[in-house]
Amino acid sequence: MQIYKVGGAVRDRLLGRPVTDVDWVVVGATTDQMQALGYRPVGADFPVFLHPKSGEEYALARTERKSGRGYGGFVFHASPDVTLEEDLIRRDLTINAMAEDEQGNLTDPYHGKDDLEARILRHVSPAFAEDPLRVLRVARFAARYAGLGFTVAPETLELMRQLSDSGELLALTPERTWKEIARALMEDQPQVFVQVLRDCGALKELLPEVDELFGVPQPAAHHPEIDTGTHTLSVLEQAARFQQPLSVRWACLLHDLGKGRTPPQLWPRHIAHEQRGLELIKTVNERFKVPRDCQELAMLVGEYYTHGHRALELKASTLLELLQSFDVYRRPHRFEEFIAACEMDARGRLGLEERSYPQADYLRGAAQAARAVSVQPLIEQGIKGKALGEALKGERLRALQAYKGS
Description:
This protein has 406 residues and is α+β, with helices and mostly antiparallel strands. It has 19 helices and 11 strands. The strands form 3 sheets. Strands 3-4-5-2-1-8-9 form a 7-stranded mixed sheet. Helix 8 runs antiparallel to helix 11, helix 11 runs antiparallel to helix 12 and helix 14 packs across helix 16. It starts with a strand and ends with a helix.
């Protein structure tokens, strides 16, 4: 029985990056032996155990073969005679197919260390094309390591293209796809994730609404980058730069979907694209069973982000409607995320990345002014029911008129 550290822990140590999760593979052992040593079994599909003290995962060395469609369509074989090399060859990328023994000696049968040094993301074997989830994983790794100069090997991109063309991506469950998208959006350069998916044809399969944005022009006066798809990537880049949460990054990805449905004869203008985009945003949210907070923010940003940009020009009544739409009295955090998404959109334009965004503080001040209105004096006047709501709204409107005039 031999135990090896494998995968990301080995990769990141060699890259000089922090190691967070450690995975272990056990060669030459049986399930009974593992349990006799106190390891707790947790794997339903294949033998995975939790260490009795550290709680880290230890998996028996295994092989796999394709048996159906999608991410789960595999038959696994684990036994004491499966070698370390056989276990490593089933992994996705060479940089993830390295192992270290307990003395720190490296086992690298597929030249992952060479690819680390060459900054290349390369598949281990042709079996890569059996698992559609790997398209998303490679794009996610590209987003994570782009800052170090990593690129996807051309032959790996070709396999990803074949997988995209096969229809296998659509066999992935919504939950599994969302998990990869969410993780990728939180990487250092999420725009690279989207670009790699587009390069291999996966974006038009998974997110055709985003893919449609590329090649759609916008007015150069507001968008020096012109292309709507390029703009979307830039907005995502800014969201990562300012370390925005997942909900903001998701809203940034979807905020301009309506522009992909503007009739070409109307280009580069996109009148009422906000309303056109709402049904598309809803469709994408439902496709991946996106968490509620991300869904809600994406819909609100899609509908109102142009209001955010014009905040200083809005009438007090329009400003009040905006604040009411976000329920800033009970959910101030959501309005703060809306402001952040608007600022990322303003910065995600060629040459305008460093410009100030005074609308942010203006909107915060407006929300504060509206929230400062107390309902208590109205109650003391004996106002009740529906009339109380109307009176409170009137007081908030007056507060915003005073705020605008100050």
